[in-house]
Amino acid sequence: LLQLVESGGGSVQAGASLTLSCVASSAGTYGPYYMGWFRTAPGKEREGVAAIDPGGTTTYTESLRGRFTISRDNAKNTLYLQMNSLKPEDTAMYYCAAGWGGLSLRRSSYTDWGQGTQVTVSS
Rounded to the nearest 5°, which phi and psi values hold at 21? Predict the structure, then answer.
């Protein structure tokens, strides 16, 4: 079981940038795992934002490609999400997730989840 702790959320104005971080830790030794960012906006279901495999290959939900960038530092067990040109519709709780289900934006591909970090974008 991986413990995931997100940070970096906050309240910003439209057009601003934020970088979210997620630190992974575990009590045992695990093989390479896939990681992803998801978000839950008010009144909506959780949706996949971006995912990255152990080697750095990425995938994005198409509507966010170009504004959001996912990356990872395996030496630091840390996942990042760089978010640029933020819009009010990006307001959501952002979660990181880890699993072994492949490079995917499906919630079912991930077994371990963080508690989330809130991002609020005002116009």
Answer: -125, 155
Structure tokens at 54: 């152990």
Of residues 84, 109, 89, 99, the one with CA closest to residue 32: 99
pLDDT in tens, 37-61: 999 999 999 999 999 999 999 999 9
CA dihedral 51, 10, 116, 93 (to 10 degrees): -80
* 61 touches 47 (CB < 8 A): yes
Contact 112, 2 (CB under 8 A): yes
- pLDDT at residue number 32: 77
Could you tell me the maximum CA-CA distance found in the chain, to the nearest angstrom?
45
Q: Which residues contact 102 (CB under 8 A, 6 or more apart)?
A: 34, 53, 109
